[in-house]
Structures are given as structure tokens and as C-alpha cells.
Amino acid sequence: MSFPQQIAKQIREVYFGGNWTTSNLKEHLNNITWQQATSKVYSFNTIAALVFHINYYICAVTKVLEGELLNASDKISFDHPPINNQDDWELFLKKTWIDAENFAKLVEKIPETKLWEIFTDEKYGSYYRNLHGIIEHTHYHLGQIVLLKKMILENANN
Predict the structure, then answer these.
(1) Which residues of the chain, if any, have pLDDT below 70?
(2) pTM above the 0.90 mark?
(3) What's the CATH number where 38 sits?
(4) What values do phi and psi take at 126, rounded to 5?
(5) Residues 6+ away with beta carbon under 8 Å from 93
(6) Paired strand residues for 118
């Protein structure tokens, strides 16, 4: 397995399962309702906002891998579209799964030598740093989602 294929495998694992932590987005979001996904806990981001935020960067880096310029802003990276019912939530998740798989497919095709090239600007480091950063970022926010889910479910049971 090439290095880009290994990176793509790790992307799929954090999204769909099979990683070392045995924790993935799809499993933890599987039984979340739209009301739970949009529930505010203290001043934390909602589950929906975190999922959007994770996917926002997947989409931004996908565009770069497709030959476009990097066009992303941290300021809007949590601004998800309205989720007003279960259908909205399920479509939102479906887009997330499709975007993740499309991203992984693009990563698999990257020539290994490209991993060490500068990613759009020197301040961002290499392609490898950014691809690995996507995986770290996803794991980080997955942990937040798991905790929020526990708090929401515990609150609903009390």
C-alpha cells in the first residue's frame, strides 16, 4: 500500500470505522436526531456545527486536490445550513459521507512525491502535513461530538 493510500485509509477509518481507536463519525452520528444534533449544550458548538466544521475543511482541501485555489475561512467554518427536520439532518450527513469518500479517493491518487511539496503556501507546510492534519482534526472534533452526545442523551433521560 502506498503512503497516499494509507492516508486515505485513515481518512475512511475515522469516518466509517476500522481505526485503532474503534471510534468513528458514522457510528456516533448514526442514531442522533436532528433535534439532538442542533441542541445547544452550555456554550459549546452543536453536534451539527462540529460535523459541518469537519466537513468544511474536507471540502476546502478537496478543491485544492482538484486543482483549484484554497478558499476557506475559519470565520465561517461552523456556519452550517439550517437543519429544521430529520430529512435535513439525514441529507446533511449523506453529503458528509459522500464528501469524505470523494476526498479519500483523491488522496489515494496523489503521487507520493507530492506529499512533501508545499500545500498552496509555505505557511501551511506540506501536503502531508495538511492531509494528516485533516485526520487529527477529525479525531479531535469526534471526541467533542461523543461527549456532547453523552451529555444530550443523559439530559434527555433525566
Answers:
(1) none
(2) yes
(3) 1.20.120.450
(4) -85, 170
(5) 29, 51
(6) 126
